[in-house]
Amino acid sequence: MIENTNFISGKESKISLHGQHHKLADVHEQLEILEHSQTNDFVLPPFQEKLQQSGLYPLKPTGIEIFQVNVGKMCNQTCKHCHVDAGPDRTEIMTKETMQQCIDALRNNPSLKTVDLTGGAPEMNPEFRWFVEEIKKLNKHVIVRCNLTIILANKKYNDLPEFYKQNNIEVVCSLPFYTKDRTDRQRGNGVFENSIKALQMLNDIGYGKEETGLILNLVYNPAGAFLPPLQQSLEKGYKTALMKEFGIVFNHLFTITNMPINRYMDYLLISNNYEKYMEKLLLAYNPVAAANVMCRNLISVGWDGYLYDCDFNQMLEMKIEIPSNHVSNFNVAELNKRNIMIGQHCYGCTAGAGSSCGGAIA
Ligand code: SF4
Ligand code: SF4
Questions:
Q1: Residue whose CA is closest, atom 4 of ligand 2?
Q2: Looking at the domain assignment, is residue 17 inside a domain?
Q3: What SS3 class is residue 187?
Q4: How far is the CA of 146 from the centre of ligand 1 (A)?
C-alpha cells in the first residue's frame, strides 16, 4: 500500500519535480513504489514472470538499429505527464564533446541506420543544429521529437521548419489530442493554439504531404489513467478533425501509452489511480507486444553519454550493465549480447497493442 506520499504537484506547475525537490525526484522512491506497492486486492506480479511465461526471459536485443539520443532535459513546457520530468528549470544538457562521441559511434557502426533525437525540447540544446548537420553527413536517417510550441517560443526557433526541411529530417510531434481543452489540460494553457500554428508552418513548406516525402508524424498519449484507443481508428479521427478545422495534413499518428514514472506517476498517485492503472496494464499484457518492445533494436544515450536500454530506463537511472556502458567506448557487438534490464514499468510497453516511440507494436 502506498502511504504518506506527500505529493504537491496536483495543480499546474511550471517547475519540474526535480525543481520542487519533490519526493519522486529521487528515482529510488519511484523504483520502490514500482517494485513494492500492493494492496489487499492487488499484487502486481514481477514483469520477469510474464516474460518467462512468454519465453522471452532474459530479454535480448534483436540487433541495434536505432540510436536514440536524449540531448537534455531542458524544455519550454512542463507537461503534466512528462516521463522525463523536463522543464525550463532543468539544466542537464549534452555537451558538444559528448555529441562528438555520439558521432564517432555512428561513424564506426553502419548498422545504426536511424538517429532519434529527443529531450526535453532537443532544439534548446545550443549545439542541436551542428549535431544534426554532422549526423546527416554520415547519411543516417534522423528523427527529431519536436513539441511544436518550441517553434514559436522564441524568434531564434521560428526557422526550425526550414532547418528540418533542408536536412530532410523526419519530424515527430506531440499533439495529445485534436481539441484545445484536452491538449491544454495536459500541456498547459495556449499549447494547442501554438501547436496548430506550428503544424501549419510545417505544412506550408511541404511537411506531411505525400508528394514531398517530408515526413510529419503526430503522437497521441492518453489524458488520464487509461490505455490509448486503437491507433488506426484514432489516426482517422485526427486526420478528419485537423483537416476540417485547420486544413492540417500529416502522415501517421503514433499512440503511446503513458509510462508510470516521473510526472505521470505523480499524477497517478495524487489522483489515487496508481494501482488501478497498473492493474489495467497487467490485465492487458500482450506477449506479441512483449516480443516487439523497442529496447530490442534501440539503444538510448543519456545527456551525459551513458547508455540505457530505452528512454524510460534512462529516466529511472537504470544504466545497462556491461563494462562499456558509455558512448565514448561504444561497442555494438557487446551491446547486442547484453541482457536488457527490465522492471515493473515495462508493463507500460506491453499492454494492449503495445507502445514504443514509434507507436503501437502489436
Ligand atoms: S512531454 Fe515533451 S514537451 Fe512536455 S515537458 Fe516533457 S519533454 Fe517537454
Ligand atoms: S520500458 Fe524500456 S526496457 Fe522495459 S520493455 Fe519498455 S523499452 Fe524495454
A1: 346
A2: no
A3: helix
A4: 9
For residue 96, what are the domain limits? 23-46+57-274+294-345
SS3 14: coil
- Residue-wise pLDDT for 234-283, tens only, equals 999 999 999 999 999 999 999 999 999 999 999 999 999 999 999 999 99
CATH number, position 140: 3.20.20.70
State which of 16, 75, 149 you would mutate to test the pocket of ligand 1, scoring each by most atoms of that ligand within 8 A of its C-beta.
Answer: 75
Cell 539520443, located at residue: 69
Ligand 1 pocket, residue 175 CB under 6 Å: no
Once rounded to an integer, what is the mean pLDDT over residues 322-331? 96
**Residue 65 included in any domain:** yes
Work out the average pLDDT over 337-353. Answer: 97
6 in a structural domain? no
Domain count, the chain: 1
The pLDDT, as a whole number, for residue 12 is 57
Report which bound ligand comes closest to the CA of 76: 1
DSSP of 258-324, one letter per residue? PPSSHHHHHHHHHTT-HHHHHHHHHHTB-HHHHHT-GGGTEEEE-TTSBEESSHHHHHTT---SSS-
Q: Which ligand 1 atom lies nearest to the CA of residue 145?
A: 2
- Which ligand number lies closest to the CA of residue 176? 1
Q: What is the pLDDT of residues 201-248, one digit of tens each?
A: 999 999 999 999 999 999 999 989 999 999 999 999 999 999 999 999
Measured in angstroms, how far is the CA atom of residue 342 from the centroid of ligand 2?
6
pLDDT at 27 over 90: yes
User: Residue 236: CA atoms inside 13 Å, Cβ hemisphere, count?
Assistant: 4
Gap from CA of 109 to ligand 1 centroid (Å): 30
Would 307 be classed as within a structural domain? yes
